[in-house]
Please model this.
Amino acid sequence: MRGEQINLQNVIARSASQVPSPQERTGGIDRVTKLIDVSRCIGCKACQVACAEWNDLRDEVGNNVGEYDNPLDLSPNTWQVMRFDEYENEQGNLEWLIRKDNCMHCAEPGCLEACPAPGAIVQYANGIVDFNSEHCIGCGYCVTGCPFDVPRISEVDGKSYKCTLCSDRVFHGLEPACVKSCPTGSIMFGTRDDMLDLAETRTDFLRSRGYDNAGVYNPEGVDGTHVIYVLQHADKPQIYSDLPEDPTISPMVSAWKGVTKPLASAAIGLAALTGFLHYVTAGPKEYSEEDEQAVRDDEARQRERESGEAQDNREERP
Amino acid sequence: MSLAKSDPYLRRYSLGERLNHWLVAISFVLLVLSGLPFFHPFFWSLTGLFGGPTMTRILHPWIGLFMVLMFAIMAVRFFKESLIRRHDIQWLKQIDDVLANRDEKLPPVGKNNAGQKLVYWIMLGCIILLLITGVMIWQPLVGEAMPITLRRLASMGHAYLAFLAIITLIIHIYSGIWVKGSFQAMVRGRVSKAWARHHHDLWYEEEMEKERKHREISRRHDHSEQETP
Model:
């Protein structure tokens, strides 16, 4: 992976930014991809340990709830979890499906789309989507935007955290920590082309072994992901702990963040301008001399009536 | 004699109403300034007014709660005079005449015109819904406890409602500048009788009637005092 040093010119997209990020340095930079072959995973959780080790994460020790899932969910201190499912297949046999759940590094990231803080979420030329905690304000919009329910907000510092795909390691030519630790070769890492190729090879192999619906999970709805799965049952991704079948950025997020933003902002400016132009055109709304005169007349009439009444009162008295 | 000199002003808003209104107004403007940066990055520099982006995120909901509280008091105060009546519909139909300052053609207006009443009802609706959606996405107090679909709906709704409220606010502020004397009415609490007669003739009649009755009562009081000894 030539030219993968940390370099700000490699930031090709950043959150809440209206002008293009650097686009020129595309020559030698290949997109990277992590391939997770679910069929080869034995659930040893070495990847979880390696992730915590490399990223200096130490989650609180939780409780055993009678499941293999441990910890039960992602957290600001747990950027990946193994999710275990017991699945009864068509032949009535039990299959143990173990999916390593972490950030998918979407080509079109919902978190980045939703984030209001300029530069708090960036996408590098190699495809990695990274959180820049320095700019994170802890609003939680990334959670709202993510189609995979990945980001988690820290209660300690109010910032959002997720898997970085070990961007620091990758920039120095190393594979992510989870990949390095995997004893079965279930997690592979390389250029995107190589990984898609390898995924096809694995899928063919699975098909030859009777998994007719084996396939690659690289969802189109988010323009592909830089973390892809080889699934034995690619026709039913939901059996792998609710892996979404056709993930997209929610229409509600698009309606909130898409063209609405510039259009509504322009409308606010135009409303103020319209007011000013109306003032210039129609002029202020004022009462006239007539109103003042009418009030004086009203009061004069009233005074007359009252003094008349007063006189009557005096005359009535003996 | 008190009859000779009459007060050229009418009381339009009490001190309580004015303070209430301006507390709502100030907190509302602060909400707009602290909320817009999260809507569009074009407004990002406004976060500098609140001590930085994260402070803006922290402060916005609290200002919101304060505003809702103040607005609730105001909404109760102004409820009765904001009910839409038949002549208000006619006034709205003649919005062209309103905008072109052809005031002589307009139907009689009570204490508030239909435009002011609409501001009341739009703001009331917006603020109730802004409160609900705002609490739903309040980070870190509530946000993460919300199911994701509700959270998305609330985020979208909060933005759209805020937009509607801001447009209404701009119209409201502009009306205060456009209709001479109305800004002063909310600052000092009083308007000239000529102003009242021109812009709110039904209310003017009512107030003049009150003044008449008031004077009559005090006159009778004077008489009875003269007769006692």
